[in-house]
UniProtKB/TrEMBL annotation:
It is an enzyme of class 2 (transferase). InterPro entries: RNA_methyltr_E_TRM7 (IPR028590), RNA_methyltr_RlmE (IPR050082), RNA_MeTrfase_FtsJ_dom (IPR002877), rRNA-MeTfrase_E (IPR015507), SAM-dependent_MTases_sf (IPR029063). Interacts with WDR6; the interaction is direct, and required for 2'-O-methylation of position 34 in substrate tRNAs. It is found in: Cytoplasm; Nucleus. Belongs to the class I-like SAM-binding methyltransferase superfamily. RNA methyltransferase RlmE family. TRM7 subfamily. Residues 40-225 form the Ribosomal RNA methyltransferase FtsJ domain. The keyword DNA repair does not apply. This is Putative tRNA (cytidine(32)/guanosine(34)-2'-O)-methyltransferase. Residues 306-342 are annotated as: Disordered. The keyword Kinase does not apply. It comes from the Eukaryota. It catalyses: cytidine(32)/guanosine(34) in tRNA + 2 S-adenosyl-L-methionine = 2'-O-methylcytidine(32)/2'-O-methylguanosine(34) in tRNA + 2 S-adenosyl-L-homocysteine + 2 H(+).
Length: 342
């Protein structure tokens, strides 16, 4: 999800507090800061890079799908790894990367974008069309819903995103291919593991160092796509809900699906739950770096605009005049909003 919090909105309000607010986030979140310094659109880039260090995800891969891709740091990783640093490696001509998200995303070299909902059949069909005849080698999904704070609901919606991604994967992935997806390790996670094990011979739950320990987020790395004999991909299965009943998740012994858990990386990597000093290196003084690519049309844009113009609490606001007409957001305000994200 876009990383944006009300604290930042307050800190960005007046000039003298701007530097403090910005550098304080740089201090609190080392991966946020490194992402800006290394030119990634989001700190999530490090999660995929760290998963790759453990699983060699990109070896032999030239065709990939990035589901739930905005603002696009995983697509950046795919573009750089598959096409080479300059965006045109030896295999540049054959590389195909398709990125999908509900949100609009700024363009990236060599990445075809689809704006749509991955749980909708029409979006799935559009993705599938890109890989007809030539299946993908890798499907990644970093999908996360807008969290409600109600853990059961959040976990359920996240699971539905994962299953939608799996369903699309069964249509586009080549046998032997790899599927990587964000997963919330909630109490019903066993059901998801068992569904994934139907399609992949290797399923590992991995936690990169850049994913906070305090978060239930992890990633399933599913290797060697091998659907059951005679399985015909269709649009409803495995989206079918099966039963999220208590009995299934309480199975014990050999009946319970337990997948290996891997903490990626060693203690030399930065700890995402720690606060680091701004001067990381005595030879290199700290300098604030702005975000690499501000998100375009983020979902919170209107809320920020209303807040900035003090329109949120006005009961007498004219109902027949749109907020845009009343005070169109200027460049600085949209920049201010977008700087809350990476
Ligand atoms: C954590 S962000 C992805 C970050 C991305 N991997 C990156 O590196 O920049 C989660 C994304 O999931 C997207 N998303 C949530 N539900 C979706 C859905 N049903 N269909 C498509 N995208 C969805 C959100 O719009 C959001 O951009």
């Amino acid at each position: 999800m876009w990383c944006c919090c009300l604290t930042c909105i307050v800190l960005y309000k007046c000039g003298s507090e701007v530097t403090m607010g910005r550098s304080s986030k740089d201090k609190r979140d080392i991966y946020y800061r490194l992402a800006k310094e290394e030119g990634w659109r989001a700190r999530s880039a490090f999660k995929l890079l760290q998963l790759d260090l453990e699983f060699n995800l990109f070896t032999g891969v030239s065709r990939a799908v990035d589901l739930c891709a905005a603002p696009g740091s995983w697509s950046q990783v795919l573009s750089r790894k598959l096409r080479g640093q300059e965006g045109k490696g030896d295999a540049g001509e054959e590389v195909k990367i398709v990125a999908v998200d509900l949100q609009a995303m700024a363009p990236l070299p060599g990445v075809t974008q689809i704006q749509g909902d991955i749980t909708k059949v029409s979006t799935a069909q559009e993705i599938i069309r890109h890989f007809e005849g030539q299946p993908a080698d890798l499907v990644v999904c970093d999908g996360a819903p807008d969290v409600t704070g109600l853990h059961d609901v959040d976990e359920y919606i996240q699971a539905q995103l994962l299953l939608a991604a799996l369903n699309i994967t069964t249509h586009v992935l080549k046998p032997g291919g790899t599927f990587v997806a964000k997963i919330f390790r909630g109490k019903d996670v066993t059901l998801l593991y068992s569904q994934l094990k139907i399609f992949f011979s290797g399923v590992t739950c991995a936690k990169p160092r850049s994913s906070r320990n305090s978060s239930i987020e992890a990633f399933v790395v599913c290797q060697n796509y091998s659907p059951p004999d005679g399985y015909v991909p269709n649009m409803s299965n495995p989206l079918l809900d099966h039963s999220y009943d208590v009995d299934f998740n309480q199975l014990e012994g050999p009946n319970r699906v337990i997948v290996p858990f891997l903490a990626c990386g060693d203690l030399s990597a930065f700890d995402s739950d720690r606060t680091y000093p701004l001067e990381l290196n005595a030879d290199k003084p700290y300098q604030y770096t702005p975000p690499t690519q501000p998100p375009i049309r983020p979902p919170y844009q209107q809320a920020c605009h209303l807040r900035k113009n003090n329109l949120l609490s006005r009961e007498d606001a004219p109902s027949n005049q749109s907020q845009e007409e009343a005070d169109p957001p200027d460049e600085s305000s949209s920049k201010e909003q977008s700087e809350q994200c990476v």
